[in-house]
């Protein structure tokens, strides 16, 4: 807890037993096969914009084949950092149970130092061979929540080599979550900030075994190297926040829209400034908590959510975040051959 408080990240060895990790890995594979078109659609929106997605789907939903072709032909090599699928828990009771477990929700409550914790989202990150770097970003810049009490557990589904040995687990700008001056003096959303001069030590979790995890604070800057190997790097990130946090209102800037598909199911029901409490933001800790979301009936709601996401996500997309196209101002390591630890300009 002290390490987390000071650095904004921590590693937990053997968080999950081997059997639980391989069962999770199989379930994630199954869900990805079933819902791949959601991931493809999100990637087209984020990297090529709403208009491109709308053109691809002007008559009917584009097939995975068509979406894959658009990504392959219309983007430079290495521009896609990973494929991403949100909220596996909504269609998998098994995954939901795991996120509510003492290992996940209990650890999140301990790290945040709170008694009641809600699940914000989960996200599968499939970094395929040749996929580019995950840009420097902080998770809270993509969440419409007005809080500092937010933590993400990053759980690889297989052994991952240390970043110095060619692995692509997360690298953290240690202590950046406590750099109030960064946002205070350089927080103009119109001007990206060059964080390379701020002296953050870059740290990572070293080599990780399946079942190990790293945890990072919602404001800590982090990134990941391109996948230079020949097997996919597969991981799940599960984000939690302290119950009582409110939906953002009246902010100087709005959150980055990369994760828009994830929150569209509850955003319309929670007024800005009100506590972010919703069945799609279930209370997962303490264990006897009630009123959490249920995976039952979720298929209809998810389909509706992604339709609404497609209509409601405005702008050109790809303005940065962890997986955006970048705007030439951030992430010097663009492209699969980018330097793994290169600092670029980041939006804090
Ligand atoms: O796995 C990745 O490359 C990105 C994960 C990430 O940014 C996160 O867990 O917040």
Automatic annotation (TrEMBL):
Sequence segments annotated as region (Disordered): 288-348
Q: Which InterPro entries match?
A: Phytyl_CoA_dOase-like
**Transmembrane intervals:** none
> Which cofactors go with this protein?
Fe cation
Residue ranges, compositional bias (Basic residues): 337-348
Q: Do you know which Gene3D superfamilies this protein is assigned to?
A: q2cbj1_9rhob like domain
* Record's compositionally biased regions (Gly residues): 314-326
The molecule here is called Phytanoyl-CoA dioxygenase
């Amino acid at each position: 807890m002290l390490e987390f408080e000071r650095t904004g990240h921590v590693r937990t060895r053997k968080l999950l037993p081997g059997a639980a990790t391989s069962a999770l890995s199989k379930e994630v594979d199954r869900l990805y096969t079933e819902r791949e078109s959601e991931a493809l659609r999100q990637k087209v929106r984020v990297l090529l914009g709403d208009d491109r997605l709308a053109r691809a789907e002007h008559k009917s939903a584009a097939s995975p084949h068509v979406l894959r072709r658009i990504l392959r032909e219309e983007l430079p090599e290495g521009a896609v950092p990973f494929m991403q699928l949100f909220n596996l828990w909504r269609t998998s009771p098994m995954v939901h149970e795991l996120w509510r477990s003492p290992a996940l929700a209990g650890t999140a409550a301990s790290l945040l130092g709170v008694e009641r914790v809600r699940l914000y989202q989960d996200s599968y990150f499939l970094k395929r061979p040749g996929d580019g770097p995950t840009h420097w970003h902080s998770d809270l810049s993509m969440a419409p929540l007005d809080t500092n009490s937010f933590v993400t557990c990053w759980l690889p589904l297989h052994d991952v080599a240390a970043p110095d040995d060619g692995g692509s687990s997360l690298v953290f700008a240690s202590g950046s979550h406590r750099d109030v001056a960064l946002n205070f003096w350089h927080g103009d959303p119109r001007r990206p900030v060059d964080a390379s001069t701020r002296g953050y030590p870059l740290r990572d979790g070293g080599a990780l075994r399946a079942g190990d995890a790293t945890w990072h604070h919602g404001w800590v800057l982090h990134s990941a190297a391109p996948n230079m190997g020949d097997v996919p790097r597969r991981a799940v990130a599960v984000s939690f926040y302290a119950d009582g946090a409110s939906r953002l209102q009246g902010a100087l800037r709005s959150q980055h829209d990369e994760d828009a598909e994830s929150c569209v199911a509850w955003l319309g029901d929670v007024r800005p400034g009100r506590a972010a409490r919703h069945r799609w933001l279930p209370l997962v800790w303490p264990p006897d908590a009630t009123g959490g979301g249920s995976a039952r009936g979720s298929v209809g709601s998810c389909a509706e959510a992604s339709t609404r996401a497609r209509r409601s996500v405005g702008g050109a997309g790809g303005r940065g975040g962890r997986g955006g196209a970048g705007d030439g101002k951030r992430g010097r390591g663009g492209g699969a051959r980018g330097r793994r630890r290169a600092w670029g300009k980041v939006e804090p």
